[in-house]
Amino acid sequence: MPLTHVKRGRTRRTGAACALTTLVAAVALTGCGTEDLVGGGVARTGASQAGKAAFQAAGHPLKGKLTCSSDDTSDSRMVVTCTGTTEDGEPAKMTADLGTDSQVVSGDNPKVRGASITGTVGGRQVFKKDCIGNC
User: Fold this and answer.
1) Contacts of 104 (CB under 8 A, 6+ apart)
2) How many Å apart are CA 52 and CA 74, to the nearest integer?
3) 76-120 pLDDT, tens per residue?
4) Which long-range contacts does 127-133 make (Cβ < 8 Å, 24+ apart)?
5) How far are the Cα atoms of 13, 92, 101 from residue 134, in angstroms, in the given order?
6) Is the pTM of this model over 0.90?
């Protein structure tokens, strides 16, 4: 699956990535070839994919995917909260506080960069980073 590069607040896409992005996130994005405002759907997808890799890297592999929700706290800030379960059966939670300079990439090499990202397992913090996934 091609990468979809998203910068919170603005996104740049070309060619096949534009077509795929439009299909996957039609509600979040409008048009191709221009810079557009991005909605929470793209942020949730990228955070779910990169978050799974972050828990794996922290020694807490997940059973299945993370389920994410987003809250636009203002025009310049979004909080994405993801939950799941580790392979050991413990509850996992990740919170990413995204600003206008944050970047989210979904697809084969997902990442969330330029955000305050915290992951917990069973209520214990297992990572706190500003970039997760393919950094």
Assistant:
1) 6, 8, 38, 42, 43, 46, 47, 50, 98, 111, 112, 113
2) 27
3) 899 999 999 999 999 999 999 999 889 998 898 999 999 999 999
4) 127/54, 127/55, 127/57, 127/58, 129/54, 132/50, 132/51, 132/53, 132/54, 132/96, 133/46, 133/49, 133/50, 133/51, 133/53, 133/54, 133/105, 133/109
5) 19, 20, 17
6) no
